[in-house]
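Feature request, filed as a ticket because there's no other form

It would be nice if the structure record came with a short human-readable summary line next to the tokens. Right now we just get the raw output. Example of a typical job, pasted below so the devs can see what we mean:
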Amino acid sequence: MCSISFFFLIIISLSCFLCSLVFLLNEYTIFLEWEVVSLNSSMVVMTFLFDWMSLLFMSFVLLISSLVIYYSKEYMKDDLNINRFIMLVLMFVLSMMLLIISPNLISILLGWDGLGLVSYCLVIYFQNVKSYNAGMLTALSNRIGDVAFLLAIAWMLNYGSWNYIFYLEFMKNTVEMQIIGALILLAAMTKSAQIPFSSWLPAAMAAPTPVSALVHSSTLVTAGVYLLIRFNILLYNSFLGQLLLLLSGLTMFMAGLGANFEFDLKKIIALSTLSQLGLMMSILSMGFYKLAFFHLLTHALFKALLFMCAGAIIHNMNNSQDIRLMGGLGMYMPLTTACFNVANLALCGMPFLAGFYSKDMILEIVSLSYINFFSFFLYYFSTGLTVCYSFRLVYYSMTGELNCGSLNMLSDEGWVMLRGMSGLLIMSIVGGSILSWLIFPTPYMICLPLYMKMMTLFVCIIGGFLGYVISNVSLFYFNKSLSNYLSSYFFGYMWFMPYISTYGIINYPLFLGMVVNKSFDQGWSEFLGGQNLYNSMKKYSQVIFFIHNNNLKIYLLLFVLWMTFLFNFFLF
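Raw output as currently delivered:
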């Protein structure tokens, strides 16, 4: 089933890519209405929007999905239920397709809820307590956004239909459209895990690694960004845009900082996804929706590759994810580590790799824009943190001596996994330049002073140097101090957000439940209610039972008593 799904998705992906080129060059848009059923002049109509953006995104999602399914053929080979896993992944991709091509809030909701439901099934796939907790946190966090989406659908009843694309442009200043925009923003922030809904994204790492590669690159977490790209008119020069700029900048900063204190390989890459989502959201809030879409596509390529390489490493390390137990992997797994390093450098914005074209342009546009110093600081500092945790990750996993057990199975023999990674490796190298030529067809030049122009490179070099220093030199001395423990606890736990969103929310209801259970269910109401009724009926039934069993003796006893009473009464 893996091979059939792989070839099927690859063919559709290439078809979508070629169609997107035609649509882009000729500026075509196809608005398709399909009448599903008509009953007494009431029609149920499905609406689809095909333009260069939706087709290009679909081609990338299908390409990454096909390679992930091919990769799963070997990664999940010992799983007895691999066909069920592939079916879940295909349902996941189908939900994403429905979300991408829908200009209608109702049909978007089908894809939106499909993503939430199937992601829950995939997160709890390994069926243990940790997976169940992570799945519940993921599902309930996303339900907040789903409720906001339903409210937005209700507010769209102010207009003639749910096809939001008709009303955005000329209704953008009305109160109703502002409320719809705020609700859509809330929905997108929960799905793309912006502050304060960030805690579910690292928790979703309980899913199998191929699912992480798919979820964190092009499907679940990017659904919110894609939705806001469609609603970008409502964000430009508005309070919603300013709020999103602040929250996404803080998300980017918080995730980059937390990744520098984390030792779980998959969680580091998950936090890097969170940081890049903040970058996309923040540039989108400033009105540059094409740049956000460009970074969305390039990020999908190298992030999927990063997760696939991490999966190959974990697979070979006997399911150990701690980077402190790795080291010197370049000697044992040269091809995997080569792919891993290319993806890492693309994430850092290494010149002429995929991430460079989008990240460099975003930072130069930010330098050129009218923006406050705080947001400017968050952009550049977060970029430095990205390079810092990437170099720290490379230092721990690739350099030095191997820290795991002497009996190990480290090798590059998983050719199916390597072939799956090699497809994304090529795209991580050339994808950025190809997309920049397509999406921005006219030659563009951003004119900045020399220091501003070199600032991105300068920040990246400093970040890489600090990543090496904190991993190598000062960590031994700094590790023992109390301040480091407290800071790593605070930063490593994402500013205590997982605690706030789990223990903080459920602590008081659980305490109240305990009080109610103690006072009512096992307290006076139980004593006067169920228990009292039971004891009374038991006592009365014992009396009646005693009478039934001893009726002759009781009759004779009563007769004697009665005669005694009469004798005494008449005698005296």
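Something like this underneath would help us a lot:
The two ends are 107 Å apart (CA to CA).
The longest strand covers residues 30-39.
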